[in-house]
Amino acid sequence: MRLSKVDQKNSPIKVRSFPPNHALRRSLLAKTQVDQLIEFIKILTNPTRFRVLHVLLIHGGLSLKQISSHLEAKPQGIWNQLAKLTKAGWVKSRNDREWRIVYSLVDQNGAIGLIFKTMETALIYQCLMTLCEKDKNITEKSKRRFLRIARSQVMNP
Predict the structure, then answer these.
(1) Any idea where the domains of the chain sit in the sequence?
(2) pTM of the full predicted structure?
(3) Angle at 88 between CA 84 and CA 91, to 5 degrees
(4) What digits encode the pLDDT tens for the residues 35-54?
């Protein structure tokens, strides 16, 4: 039998309600944070932009011609993606002594570097797991050691 609110106040039995535990709950992202995260993901999900970022991370400052030769792609397509990356604030451009425009990452050791390092170590971990599952000559002790090293690399890139 449920008591109405009036009856609950007058009832000799005290009904105790617990406040929500805010320490255990994660707050929702603000709309601006969600918008920024969506733009961040959009930039990374385009294969050409992703490859451009990776080339710039590995080789540093490069001209449009150098980037397109590394990626074996048409310069016009690379230029379009560089324009979007520059507008988003991920890539900066400067003129060098030969009047070429050189593109480089805004923050070489920041978020982009961390993203690629984490992905590389995760791929290494996945390859090691596949190798350990397929190769019957690897002892269980070696498998555990390989996986422990790979896990530590993924957790601490």
Answers:
(1) 31-105, 111-155
(2) 0.61
(3) 80
(4) 888 888 888 888 899 889 88
